[in-house]
Amino acid sequence: MGSDLIGKLLIRRLQGITLVGRVVECEAYDEGDPASHSFRGPTPRNEVMFGPPGHMYVYFTYGMHFCANVVTGRDGHGSAVLLRAVQPLEGLDWMAERRGLSDERLLCAGPGRLTQAFGIARAENGADLVRDGAVFLAKGRPPEAESIGVSARIGVNVGADLPWRFFELGSPFLSRRSMPGRGAGTGAARGSGRRGS
DNA sequence: TGATAGATCGGCT
DNA sequence: GCCGATCTATCAG
């Protein structure tokens, strides 16, 4: 499922520097899901989503932010997992300079924030995340199953009932603080199986 | 061809 | 808690 990404390491090499972050929050998007860019079929913008899994789908939104996804479905199927927050592990100084602030908790706490901190933009769309390159994913220490929370996705209107947001419980690096009144960890109905790679 | 809503963020009331 | 910034894709006319 989408939670398989939690705990993985996002590694970025650029300008002779290595940046590393541990994924602590992500959201799944799939065909048939009205909130997904793939809902209306392939277009020039989302074609990477319909390509083979293990690649990065980057899109520009709200006129100023990039968002990074990991394509998960088999070739021809439009599904991906949005990286919403990572815990910065290496290259914090560089990230802080790009972000214009020094608070570790805010460097990569949000889809637009983490792409800015990692220097991910249009050029990274379609990048192979499996092979060691300018940007890729590596296995980290997997989290305990009971430390993964599930909730509705953030920022979507349609499909808001789907519990397809996964995050590490209690992490101070999430895009939002613990949900008030919401039993974050309580077993929400698992939607479906994702995964590839 | 024009209008509008959007997988966001940061600043101000 | 609300609003503006500013580009894109999609939908209405």
Characterise the protein shown here.
- The protein has 197 residues and is mainly beta.
- The protein has one domain (3-186): 3-methyladenine DNA Glycosylase, Chain A, CATH 3.10.300.10.
- The chain contains three helices and eight strands; from the N terminus they run βββββαααβββ.
- The chain has helices spanning 92-99, 104-107, 111-118; strands spanning 9-14, 17-29, 56-61, 65-71, 80-90, 135-138, 148-151, 165-168.
- Strands 1, 2, 3, 4, 5, 6, 7 and 8 form an eight-stranded antiparallel beta sheet that branches.
- α1 (92-99) packs across α3.
- The longest helix has 8 residues, at 92-99.
- It starts with 8 loop residues before the first strand and ends in a 29-residue tail after the last strand.
- Residues 178-197 have low confidence and may be disordered.
- It binds a DNA duplex (13 and 13 nucleotides) through residues 27, 29, 35-37, 40, 43, 45, 59-65, 67, 69, 82, 84, 110-113, 153-157, 175.
Order of helices and strands: EEEEEHHHEEE
Mind telling me which CATH architecture this is? Roll
Helix percentage: 10-25%
**Share of β-strand residues:** 25-35%
Structural class: mainly beta
Supply Rg. Answer: 16 Å
- Cα shape: globular
Give the end-to-end Cα distance, rounded to a whole number of Å.
12 Å
How many helices? 3
Q: Kindly give the count of domains.
A: 1
CATH homologous superfamily annotation: Methylpurine-DNA glycosylase (MPG)
Average residue pLDDT: 90
CATH fold group: 3-methyladenine DNA Glycosylase, Chain A
Unreliable spans are 178-197
The first-level CATH class is given as Alpha Beta
List how many beta strands DSSP finds: 8
